[in-house]
Amino acid sequence: MGENSLGIVVEGNPSESKLSELNIKCWPKWGCSPGRYQLKFDAEETCYLLRGKVRVYPKGTSTTECVEFGAGDLVIIPEGLSCIWDVSVAVDKHYKFDPSSDDDDDQ
């Protein structure tokens, strides 16, 4: 599992026991066709790609640095990230948004 300068964590081919523990099959699904998408993550997202291939570039920079992930990867995207998703193979994923730590104060 590795983190990069964008703060995205990619775990390749997590174990079936980890996927079961996270209850991923009960998470909502989302998909998109190949293309470029500008996205802003207002909450931390954890997702598991069933299929697809994505390169994520930080928005508003001229850097060529990117993070790549695809089918079989478990990915954590940090809250507040503005980026461009360059999707070369259509994406089908399970996802969930983690509540921000501010919400925990209400309990």
Automatic annotation (TrEMBL):
Pfam families assigned: Cupin_3 (PF05899)
Domain of life of the source: Eukaryota
Biological classification of the source: Eukaryota, Viridiplantae, Streptophyta, Embryophyta, Tracheophyta
Protein's name in the database: Ammonium transporter 3 family protein
Gene3D superfamilies: Jelly Rolls (2.60.120.10)
Location of the (S)-ureidoglycine aminohydrolase cupin domain: 20-95
